[in-house]
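Before going further, learn to read the protein records used in this course. The integers have meaning only within a learned vocabulary of local backbone shapes. The record below shows the convention in full.
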Amino acid sequence: MLATRLCRVSPGLASLVRAPVVLTTPRLSKGQITRLFVNDGRGSYTRSARRRATVVEQAAAPAGETAFNIGKAAVAGGAVVGLGGLCYYGLGLSSQTGAIDRAHLWPQYVKDRIKSTYAYFGASVAASAASAAMCLRSPAMMNLMMRQGWIAIGVTMAAMIGSGMVVRGLPYKEGFSSKHVAWLVHTGILGAVVAPLTLLGGPLVLRAAWYTAGIVGGLSAVAVCAPSDKFLAMGGPLAIGLGVVAVSSIGSMFLPPTTVLGSGLYSIALYGGLLLFSGFLLYDTQKIIKQAEIYPMYNIDRPYDPINNAISIYLDTLNIFIRVLTMMAGGGNRRK
């Protein structure tokens, strides 16, 4: 009854009651659905490509002061830590004894081993300097050492690494032997490789040599005054750091230092390399002292090898010198 009254009052409402409204969605054909999926995928790819392009553009953007300032701050911090360590261990504030405290108790053969090791180190420096001077007097050799290209770089790296492996693999014998010949060849090759750096100017090279001597002398004093095993535990971190610096050096060959990524890699190779090889010098110095103390005295087949130990600190010193000279020549500000 009530429904009949409502229908009479509102005919439109009665029609709704008799035929309810059903909401329908438009039906798409298979072709339209396919086009929608294709357009959606194309839009996603475009957005991801745009994001990748942004990252590349950021890496290739012009370099600022950040990477070089961080590197300079790291070197300055390392210098402060080194001076602090020298004062701490040099003044005898450490509770543990260092090598310098036991030096008067060493047998004579330990003193002779350390003395011969540093004698070969000095001779290595002199041989490399003589080789560099000879290359400077020969235009053909300088042209060969300054030649660019991957073949020249590969030959140079093969000569350095190969000669180093040969000299380290040969056994040491008293007197002049084949190991001494390989040692002179190896140091001569390294001197020839460094020879083009002398074109930066004699006064600049001399100043860099004096600065390097001060750094090496200070670090050696820290290693001698510190406890004997203080820096021998640094072998693992130093090896990891060497890999990072090597990768950065290779990367800086492909990326110019005028970009953000290139400047970061160059800063790691330059400033990080200086800190790394300073740490290696501490490690190798204490390693020489340790081997001189504990190496068997009557090992006839394989006697104590001062040449191999000298090459370790010689390579550390050479890498420090190259980086100091590069920084003094303005290599820490390569943004043009």
